[in-house]
Design goal:
- There is one protein chain.
- This protein is α/β, with parallel strands linked by helices.
- The chain contains five helices and six strands; from the N terminus they run βαβαββαααββ.
- Helix content is 28%, strand content 18%.
- The strands form two sheets. A four-stranded parallel beta sheet has the order 5-2-1-6. Strands 3-4 form a two-stranded antiparallel sheet.
- It is globular, with a radius of gyration of 18 Å.
Amino acid sequence: MSQAIGNTALAYARVWHHVDASERVLGKLAERIAIVLMGKHKPIYDPGVDCGDYVVVTNARNIKVTGKKAQQLVYRHHTMFPGGLKEIQYKEMMRRKPDEIIRQAVSGMLPKNKLRERRLERLRIFADDDMGVFKHNILKRWEDGTLPPRTN
């Protein structure tokens, strides 16, 4: 009698990644963060299983956008009251809530399904260099904005 042994708890263990967003392009950084939150960098990736890691982003205030996006980008949300569509320019959003810029960019790159909110809960964004108690959890750092090479 044989038994198939599935993926162990060690394979699904979550790792904390640290990303410094200084002088990084918003879209490229958000894409790489979304890959880690989904778990696509792991060999056990399954679209229906939430196997991604935690990501801590610092220096969100220093992120860059290309082209004329700094003047043209507008963030919209609705208050759910009649006539309640609110628009905030990129520069104003960078002044008020720079973490929300990265959060919305990453949210747009995640699949639109029931796992999306749970994945976004594992994303921690800080406007400055101080990340508080999360610095003790960090196991991997991205120096150039890309994932570290796999060592097999």
